Amino acid sequence: MKILHILNDGPSGLSARIIREQSREHDIRVVDISKRDVSYESIVEDIFSHDRVISW
User: Fold this and answer.
1) What is the structure's pLDDT at 31?
2) Is 36 helix (H, G, I), strand (E, B) or coil?
C-alpha cells in the first residue's frame, strides 16, 4: 500500500513514530507543507497516486 503523509505544521513526535512504523510494511511518502519550496501541483498528483492520504 502507498501512503502519503502531509505534514501541515511540520513533523511531530507522534507523526514520526507512526510514519516509522508504517514504513516497515508500506511505501511511504512524506510532504511537509510548512516548508516554502513545496509544489502544490506535485501534492495534488501525490494525493491521487497514493492509496491512503493522512494529513497532520
Assistant:
1) 95
2) coil
Please tell me the predicted confidence (pLDDT) of residue 38.
86
Write the CB contacts of 6 (distance below 8 Å, at least 6 apart in sequence): 31, 33, 43, 53, 54, 55, 56
Number of domains in the chain: 1
Instruction: Taking the CA atoms of 10, 11, 15 and 18 in sequence, report the sign of the dihedral they define.
Output: positive
Owner of C-alpha cell 495534488: 44
At 35, is the pLDDT very low, low, confident or very high (cuts 50, 70, 90)?
Answer: confident
Strand ranges, E, within 1-56: 2-7, 27-32, 52-55
DSSP 38: -
Domain residue limits at 17: 2-55
